[in-house]
Amino acid sequence: xxxxxxxxxxxxxxxxxxxxxxxxxxxxxxxxxxxxxxxxxxxxxxxxxxxxxxxxxxxxxxxxxxxxxxxxxxxxxxxxxxxxxxxxxxxxxxxxxxxxxxxxxxxxxxxxxxxxxxxxxxxxxxxxxxxxxxxxxxxxxxxxxxxxxxxxxxxx
Length: 156
Prior knowledge:
The chain is of the alpha+beta class.
């Protein structure tokens, strides 16, 4: 079966993302049906801290910043997986991610992300698990270093 140029181009873009780089042709066929390619302008908010996460993204092209409680905590660039923590555990977003340039993204809903994981593609699972573990540790360290809010109690 011959593939169109557009399909080949999309497949090439999938393979450029580290999360999908180790996938076979058959696995990529399945993944293609689970992701939606979208483009958004600079300033687009991909995730908002404290909100329920219903999708995640793979940043194909462009850059973004990651903020927690209004403070810059990371930069994201092409190949980054964003928003996965809310789909792999606690559903509340732990940070806000904002595009600093125009971006091309692969978007997956919660259901599509679950379907991707159900494919049990070893390279994808290893990548997602490693990213989530690394971010979980960084988040715990960040939370530990954030100033505590102390409430004042009045005594009579």
